[in-house]
Amino acid sequence: MLKTRCVQRASLRIPRAPPSCRQVSNKARPQTRAATHPYAQRRQQHFVRSIATVTVLWATASAWSWYNGHALFREVHAEEPPPEQELKFEMPRRQAASKEENRDIISSQHLQVKRSWENPGVYAWGSNKGKVVAPDSTETYVKSARRIPFFDGKILRDLKLASTFGAAIDEKGDLLQWGTAFSTESAQPTHTLRGKNLATLAISRDRIIALSKSGTVYSIPVSQKEQRTGPKPASTSWIPFWGGSNDDISYRIRTPNSLGYSERVTDIVSGLEHALILTSSGRVFSFASGTEHYPRKGQLGIPGLTWETRPAGPFDLPHEITTLKGFPITKIAAGDNHSLVCDSAGRAFSFGDNTTGQLGFPFNPDSLYVDAPSLLPTQRLYAGTGQEATVKNVYAGGNTSFFTVEASKPNASARDPARVTADTWALGYGLTGQLGTGRWVHNQSSPVKVPAFSSLFEYDEKTNSIVPIRLAYLSIGQSHAAAVLDNIASLDVKSNRKHTENDINWGQDILFWGNNEFYQIGSGKRSNVATPTYIQPLDQAAEAERAASIAGGKAEKEQHRFQITPRNKVKVNGRNISMQQRVECGREVTAVYSAV
Ligand SMILES: *[C@@H]1O[C@H](CO)[C@@H](O)[C@H](O)[C@H]1NC(C)=O
Ligand SMILES: *[C@@H]1O[C@H](CO)[C@@H](O)[C@H](O)[C@H]1NC(C)=O
Ligand SMILES: *[C@@H]1O[C@H](CO)[C@@H](O)[C@H](O)[C@H]1NC(C)=O
Ligand SMILES: *[C@@H]1O[C@H](CO)[C@@H](O)[C@H](O)[C@H]1NC(C)=O
Ligand SMILES: *[C@@H]1O[C@H](CO)[C@@H](O)[C@H](O)[C@H]1NC(C)=O
Ligand SMILES: *[C@@H]1O[C@H](CO)[C@@H](O)[C@H](O)[C@H]1NC(C)=O
Question: Which residue ranges does UniProt annotate as crossing the membrane (predicted)?
Fold first, then answer.
């Protein structure tokens, strides 16, 4: 029975979707492991292309139990009856005119990948109070994915959203802005800062921080009025009118001026009032990125620095976080009022606001803020497992923090091979579900594992081995979040003879969770979600067309799920480009955009 379901699943249909991923624990669940060991399945899989798709189904038992909230850390066996699924193997269907048409009909996933290449652009949903998600509409909410027509056919370098403004960098590196906090006159995205070859964006409460390809950091007011009336820099271009630069808008350059000879800025992030700058030599700088308040919760990471004690000169000059010297920092993250960084040796540090435990170290119950970077005790989380833990990445949003860890046994043997486990941990505020752990808590100051993204494995056909499923990335909004899994995708099925009509493309799994007050999860419902969940495919028109082409016009029983297309070389309007879909969870809004 299991075998049949596996084949069905992989070749044809996506089950209605509780969270996808199977937890294969190394030790704790021998029974589960035996029942689902990928090699056992492999013997019979003719259609199965990747265990990734198969494991999803085995996951149902365990996933379902945490869905229902009563089995967070309980042992779950595959023998448990899975929820009822009415999977029909061969629905009668219209004769397909070609292999490619057959692929579209049989697979929502194949169609989604294809549509993402044929039809680049931006889908958005959530709060529309600032006309960010649907600039032409007066609706308060947009409940499920909708295109922003302005971006049809466009590919972007970056995109960041708040509930009252949006900012994007187009393919040429120019800044686009829209939303009521930008302007109440022009509804459509409008070019503002141009000619700077921008690459990366971050947003504070009222400013846009942008990083150019050459490593220059710009701080630009969100408001168009302020851009027009504020102080303008003297033109930095030594050839007048060169490069279409428009220095008629107000902005400040905030590149640290103490960079080494070949050192340059490689990343920027911003909270509501503070921004972090990372350089190629692993140094971190911070500066005040808002104009309403000076950061006063320690989020700058510079002990003793306040409005009163700040050095002479502009209030928003970058300062190096010198206490991090000796720790080559590789990743930076900013929540609204706190910061997280990790270094090349896999250590994580946090600083700033701790009112909801988002810094992760129970140390002094009286101190609400911590203004010096402090080491997160991550090794302790793996005490007794014999594993060594390395923090790979850090993420933050609102008053919640996340970090990903890879753990493995240092002394592997043939009997006990050094399998790498990839885990995701969450901490901080979780009252509306944004920790993704299935719990609703005020302050989670000791990190908890997010079961949906921890200890996942899949079978890699190319290397004949079991590999951990890592996260491709997390996008943490102010109160909701999304995770893209780095599962093995299939992107090379084209119209050529070597593929059969049952070979299909599929993308990567993406799950959403957290606060849903503004419909920012995209589930179409408004209830908060404490366990990562799938949403429907974004292009509902294409889905409907596909469903209609199944003979008999019977409405499909199954719900398909949105999968996001990872990076691939594709032809768009006659050009070869490397493109991917990316998700951006902002403040009360979400977008999926086509990115270079
Ligand atoms: C951070 O906040 C948590 C929860 O409020 C508290 O238990 C912990 O002691 C605080 N840590 C510090 C260093 O203040
Ligand atoms: C944490 O953030 C949420 C919204 O993002 C907010 O409602 C809540 O008040 C914050 N908690 C604290 C203690 O600031
Ligand atoms: C961050 O601090 C500002 C005030 O400086 C406050 O308005 C906001 O609620 C805080 N956000 C969180 C998530 O704690
Ligand atoms: C690994 O082996 C070395 C010596 O062979 C030993 O010193 C070390 O404690 C071992 N580590 C673990 C985690 O078992
Ligand atoms: C942390 O949360 C608990 C219950 O969720 C609450 O009793 C406690 O007051 C909170 N502590 C802080 C510092 O907010
Ligand atoms: C795009 O790539 C294909 C091969 O992948 C090549 O044949 C074609 O010439 C390229 N087209 C352009 C415009 O570069």
Answer: 47-67
